[in-house]
Every structure is written in C-alpha cells, then in structure tokens.
Amino acid sequence: MTTSRPATATLVVPAVLVSALVGALIAAQGRFNGDLAVAGAGTLTAGWLSYLGTLVTIAVVVLVRGRAARTAVVLRDRGRWWWYAIGLCGIPIVLVSAYGIPIVGLAVASVASVAGQTVAGLALDARGVGLPGRLPMTGRRTLAAATAIAGLALAMVAGSGDAGVGGGQSALIGVLFFVAGATLAGQNAGNGAVAQASGDPTIAGLASATGGTVAISLLVGVAAMTGGLAGVALPDAPGDWYLYLGGPLGAGIVVAAAWAVRHLGTFALTLTVVGGQLVTAMVVDVSRGLGTPWTTVASVLAIVAATALGVSRRAPAAA
Question: 227 Cβ partners below 8 Å, 6+ apart?
C-alpha cells in the first residue's frame, strides 16, 4: 500500500502533459467540425460525422491492438447501461461548436465552455466521481474556479465587440457553450469511472462513442424524415478531406481524457486541457484573420493562473 501512492503521484505530471495535448486536439476538432458545417454539411450532420468517425477510429485501434476479444468480454460481463449513456454528454459540445464557433470565434467559444466545465468539475470531484477518492472544495480550488470564470467574462467582452456579432447573440452562444461544457465535464468524469471499472481507457472511449453515435444517429434520422436535412451537401472528400478529421481527433480526446482524469480529477483536467486548448484557439483565430483582442489574451492568462492554482502535485488519494 505504501508503494501505490508514489507510483500514482508520479503520473500527475504526465497526465498534465496529456491533458494539454487533449486541449489542442479539442480546439482543432472544433474548428474542423465548424468548417464542415459551414461548408454545407450543417450543424447536425457535422456532429454526426464527427461521432461516427470517433467510433470507427476507436474500433480500429481496438482491432489493431489485438484486444477485440477481451474488449467484447469486458463489455458483455461488466458493462452497464450508463457506460454507453455517458456518450450523450458529449453531443451538446459537438453541436454547439459546429454552430457557434464560426460566429464568435474559437477562442471565445473555448473559454465559455471552460467555465461550465470548471463549475461542474468542482462538484464532481467533491463527490469523487471517476476518482479513487474525493477531492474537497478547498479555498485554493475555489479561487482557481473564480479565476477561470473571470476569464469567461473577459472573453465575452471580446465576443461582444466582434464585427457583425451582436452582444445578445454573443451572450446567448456563450451560455450554450457554458451548458455544453458542464455536460462535457460529466462525460470526462464518467469515462474515468468506466476506465477504472474496465481497466482500459480505450473501452471507456468505445462505450461512450457507441452511445453518443446511436443517440445522434437517431436525431439525424428524425431530421431526415421531417425534412430537416434539406440542402445538406457534403464537401468533396478528396479536395476537403481535412474537414473530416473531427472524428479521429475525437477518438484521441475521449481516450486520453479517460486516462488523465483518473490522476487529476475532473476540475484539474479541465484547467490543464484549457492550457493547450486556448493557445491553439488563438493561433487558429489569428491564422484565419479573426484577430485576438486584448481581452482574449487576458482571459488566457487568467486560465493559466487558474491552472497553477487548481492542479495538485499529488494524485487523488484512494478512499
């Protein structure tokens, strides 16, 4: 028992690095899905293609690793319905990203979703969801959350000032991203619990992607029957192949986050993810000619400060 804690604690730093990479992948995925939606696929279809691509990619990884039989046994013998239901928590962020990012920009959307994740992450960690034990809401963690939310306020000022985007529309999209971020925190915590129960974060990703794909496929089916997909036109794959990378990136996101959350907790995972996410977001926005207002830069600095406050050097202690 004395050797298990140091071994776990040594994984905190690698988990921070993996989470930062996840943030960069999330930023890139949001841009690809948003561009796919604008290119003619529409918000719902772009989200469906992203989920489908995630599921296919994880399934291929399972096959390549030679773990198909073991994965099937685990899902059959130990799987629970909520393993698959967790995937529904990722649908809001996929759809809202495809709709909102082309309007307010990636940096603003990212910070807005972060605020929802931090608030939900504190509550989930306090209950020990997806962790070996509970992480109480200390003054340091509360200050980290307040700092992150201050970053949201700065980002919303930046969004309100964008040309062609009204303050009311920017605020509404910000609220949508806040709610979507909160549900995403639930997905991360739930996948951490599944990774613990199954012993493999890839299984957690597979179950989550399966549930999410089934749910969003039903939405697409209803939309098709009611004429909601009229006018949808998929971009030419050979020429615009990169627009379909949201799915494979999603596979990396869900599996890596399912592993990292076990060592950081949902709240700290969110903050470390943001470090990579917002830097990537600003780089992408600048490269697209959207510019980066000083308020967005200040919001990034606020998130970095929140990360320094919120990440513990020790892993969550086992109950």
Answer: none
* pLDDT at residue 10 greater than cutoff 90: no
Residue 54: predicted pLDDT: 94
Question: Smallest Cα–Cα separation from 311: which of 70, 91, 20?
Answer: 20
Classify residue 69 by burial, with Cβ atoms within 10 Å: 0-12, 13-18, 19+.
exposed
Number of helices and strands (H, E) in the chain?
13, 0
Q: Which of 255, 248, 310 is nearest to 57 (CA)?
A: 248
Nearest to 173 by CA among 185, 188, 155: 155
Q: Is residue 300 in some structural domain?
A: yes
Are 154 and 297 in contact by the 8 Å Cβ rule? The answer is no
In a domain, 201, yes or no: yes
Query: Against a cut of 0.85, is the pTM above it?
Result: no
> Other CB atoms closer than 10 Å to residue 95's CB: what's the count?
22
244 sits in the region (left: phi over 0; alpha: psi -120 to 50; else beta) called alpha
Question: What tokens appear for 181 in the block?
Answer: 């971020």
Instruction: Please state, in angstroms and as integers, the Cα–Cα distance from residue 224 to each residue in 115, 294, 308, following that order.
Output: 34, 43, 47
Q: Are 310 and 141 in contact (CB under 8 A)?
A: yes
Percentage of the chain exceeding pLDDT 70:
86
In-domain check, residue 96: yes
- The letter for the amino acid at 268 is A
Per residue in 243-270, pLDDT (tens digit) is 889 999 999 999 999 898 888 888 888 8
Tokens encoding 211: 């549930």
Q: Specify the higher pLDDT residue, 277 or 38.
A: 38
Distance between CA atoms of 316 and 319, rounded to whole angstroms?
9
Nearest CA to 299 among 110, 104, 160, 154? 154
Question: How far is residue 156's CA from residue 173's CA, in Å, rounded to a whole number?
Answer: 10
Cα 79 vs. chain centroid, distance in angstroms?
A: 23
| Residue-range definition of the domain harbouring residue 167 | 27-310
State the amino acid at position 182 in one-letter form. A
Question: HSE-up of 36 (CA within 13 Å, CB side)?
Answer: 30
Q: Is 7 a member of any domain?
A: no
Number of structural domains found in the chain: 1
